[in-house]
Here is the input.
Amino acid sequence: MFDSLSVKLDQAFKTLKGQGRISEINVATTVKEIRRALIDADVNYKVAKDVTDKIKAEALGRDVLIAVSPGQLLTKIVAEELTVLMGERNVPINLEGSPNTILISGLQGSGKTTFSGKLASLLKKQGKTVLLAACDVYRPAAIDQLKVLGEQIGVEVYTEVDEKDPIKIAKNAVKYAKENGKKSLIIDTAGRLAVDEAMMNEIEAIKREVKPSETLFVVDSMTGQDAVNTAKTFNERLNFDGVVLTKLDGDTRGGAALSIRNEVQKPIKFISTGEKMDAIDLFHPDRMANRILGMGDVVSLVEKAQQTFDEEEARRINKKIKKNQFGFDDFLSQMEQIKKMGNMKDLLGMIPGVGKAIKDVDIDDDSLKPIEAIIKSMTPTERENPDLINGSRRQRIAKGSGTSVNQVNQLLKQFQQMRKMMKTMNKMGGAKALSGLLK
Here is the structure.
């Protein structure tokens, strides 16, 4: 996410490394590099110039504290200005009304249908009864795709086989949601390959008829400045409430995220990465600014952990650690919790300093599969008591898991080291302290 922009901004800050103080000359040089980095990231030139002018004025207007280097100060100022540029704070969606109706708009291929499923999954986790409505009657696979997603997340999908008028389908979906006690209705609408009058008239008519509590514009962040121009056109006709940036896990230059809020004066409310139904996040401008600057995002990492965290499971694991009975079944359970948190590289990138270190490293989410295969090739007794695993057992486990004896040995060694560390932590009261942190 924003790797190219992050690298270029980091290079710009190197101009100030070793400088004892901020001067007009070294700030001007650094700001020029920052502006170039933003423009290369497809940020609108006027926006890039405005924000770098503010950065320069702020930098020259502040005194450098003894404990803070000029580079650190400028990084802080850039983080503040990027946060302002992207909207300062998270703006939640409006969930008023019964049902609260959320209208999804955008071009074809922007990821509207997938996002509709993700949003439904998120609202369901929040305890809401959700209905998805399939109003894209033009793309043959759209209705089937929504049905598959609905089945995957356990959310009902409203469809009408014989009706070809999306406005009538949307109206009937609202009526159905009311009659069946659905708290939230998400309407997935049709898109086109480009903005056209027929599409705009249709989406306007749907909005007029269903009177949604929230209208979201979904845009593919990889389309760069074109995303901003499309957002302007949709906003002029729909006056939408917020923006959703999809495909942020791709090789995007990031310009859309940095420019779109400034250009349409509407908040970015969600970001979406990948195809998994839990790959959706609320957009926090300050956290995104920190991630762009390689400063990590620990708050989001903790929130993701809390979403997947099972208190009962944690208490069970804690008891086993205290009794020194932590086995491979428990290890497998913890791995499953980590996998639920999302893409491994994105998660590691939220840790301050780690993002830069792993930017060129290919971290495959499937890298945990050999470990799972090895553990699942063990007998229940072996998983509970790994000390029983001798040479012949290791050969059998390696053969059963499609791995080598060396890989089995390596996993057993790492597991024993982890158990020793847990035992030491337990003696020091660390397990209790860790449990307290998670609660």
About this structure: Strands lie at 100-105, 130-135, 156-158, 184-189, 214-220, 242-246, 268-272, 280-282. Residues 136 and 142 are 6 Å apart (CA to CA). DSSP finds 21 helices and eight strands in the chain.
